[in-house]
Amino acid sequence: MAGIYDGAVQALIDELGRLPGVGPKSAQRIAFYLLEADEAEVQALVEALQAVKEKVRFCAVCGNVTEDELCRICSDPRRVGSVICVVEEAKDIVAIERSREYRGRYHVLGGAIDPIGGVGPQDLRIRELYARLASGEVEEIILAMDPNIEGEATATYLSLNLGNMGVTVSRLASGLPVGGDLEYADEVTISRALAGRQRITPIQ
Ligand code: ZN
Q1: What is the 3-state secondary structure (H, E, C) of the chain?
Q2: Residues lower than pLDDT 70 in the chain
Q3: How many A from CA of 40 to the centre of ligand 1?
Q4: pLDDT tens, residue by residue, 147-202
Q5: Cα-to-centroid distance, 174 and ligand 1 (Å)
Q6: What is the CB neighbour count within 10 angstroms for residue 194?
Q7: Cα(200) to centroid of ligand 1, in Å?
Q8: Model-level pTM?
Q9: How close is the Cα of 62 to the center of ligand 1, in Å?
Q10: Contacts of 129 (CB under 8 A, 6+ apart)
Q11: How far apart are CA 104 and CA 199, in angstroms?
């Protein structure tokens, strides 16, 4: 499909085609939609794209996306500070929040351990997680990795290392679709997985 249109149209198709989940056909459909769309609609899209790069950053504490120094959850005094739920990506927070079951705080790793893809523990926000334990406020860490090989490797690594840091480590109960992505799990499944979480280290 490469290079069948001239200049700007092809450039737009190429850029759209690089987005996750957008194949060549969808890229072409979106490009032609935009070509025929109102000037104002296209302008709104351009502004939304620029704003996300200019304003949005990562929370200084947990790594969630935010427009401020601290994210909405870290700056909310009603959230329980003794529990941290560790997730791979900020979008996983949205999935867990949808369940309305969890009142603790979060920590975003920024990915998962993937030896084949060249991602090791040092590439993730694991040191930042250990640093958060120094205050002594945290009593439980809930590992909420994606139910796939990389998630499994990450949870195993973390549970081994967190086991002797004086916190209870637990993992979401099974029931999440294996090989899937936490963000696609529905709220009932996530609620059950949270409620039935299994402790993997004893209380110290
Ligand atoms: Zn935060």
Answers
A1: CCCCCCHHHHHHHHHHHCCCCCCHHHHHHHHHHHHHCCHHHHHHHHHHHHHHHHCCEECCCCCCEECCCCCCCCCCCCCCCCEEEEECCHHHHHHHHHCCCCCCEEEECCCCCECCCCECHHHCCHHHHHHHHCCCCCCEEEECCCCCHHHHHHHHHHHHHHCCCCCEEEECCCCCCCCCCHHHCCHHHHHHHHHCCEECCCCC
A2: 1-3, 174-175, 177-180, 202-204
A3: 34
A4: 889 999 999 999 999 988 889 999 987 667 666 678 778 888 888 888 888 888 75
A5: 27
A6: 19
A7: 25
A8: 0.79
A9: 4
A10: 84, 86, 107, 109, 141, 158
A11: 16
Distance separating alpha carbons of residues 91 and 93, to the nearest angstrom = 5
